[in-house]
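Give me the fold.
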Amino acid sequence: MAKTTSDSLKIEVWGSDRVAQGADALVAPSQSTIEKGFVDGIANANDFTWVPNVLGGKINHCLQNGIATWNNTTAYVAGNMVTHSNKAWQCLVGNTNSTPADGNANWDKMLSVSTPPTLNSVLPSQTGNSGRLLTTDGTNASWGNIPFAYVNFDASLTSNLTGTFTRTLAVVTANVTAHGHRVGDRIYLFSSGVLGEWGTVATVPDANTFTYISGTSGTIASTTFTLQRRSIRKALNVHSVPYQETGGTYAVNFTSPAPDANYALLGSAQNRSGANSLAVLQFHVSNSGFHAPTVNYVHCAVRNSSTGFVQDMTDNTVVVFA
């Protein structure tokens, strides 16, 4: 079988030009022979060569010239190929202004050439998801955190907010600018000589107001208070670390709720400098006892291993795997 080089001098095509090689021109097999697939016996040399010649010629044409977009003013002849409506078509019968379409006998649909989707179009939105990992439940993709949350905080430094509160019966209404809390968060509200207690946010009427149910009941007129929080060095999916005024006990509020409360926890506590104490970080406990895990927060306490008492440390880390 002859081999020739195309005009581009880059694409080699087998069996495309027998005459240039001193052989007779190819003669197409009869339609009946083509339809039989040469099953009557061994194909003769002409028939055998004709197949790669046709295929090679068409591939060579497409590689060198591409496939032009169909134009309603072009006079097409049999064998021309075009693209139209994200498909490739071959002209069967010469025509002009005969739109390639299913059922149009002038054209044969060859293949789909639709543009593949871009990566961004098949991923969930990347806005606001910097640093997160793509996860799947087996059906849908979403952005997730591995771990679910972590926080490193300094219990010797505070990021407290101040405001006013009132209490009617057991309902405490706190007013503090940009408190950042949502329903289910844990807070510690302290007002010297008046009130000092843990609470769970019950309602959030607006960005500057929240309510919780107090452990005691009675009327308290508008009074100043401190919304106590430790200073966060670095965190993922944690927005605040409230603490009890006597020190050593904290809550970690998740920015987004955990899928359930059956998460795994790791933690450590120590002093970075000065008097270093051997400490154990305990979960789900505070001075007031055991606190069952919730999807919104986790309680923890740092206990001095030597004295057995809770104690603030400068370097505390909590990691949550949900």
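The domain at 161-227 is CATH 2.40.30.20 (Elongation Factor Tu (Ef-tu); domain 3).
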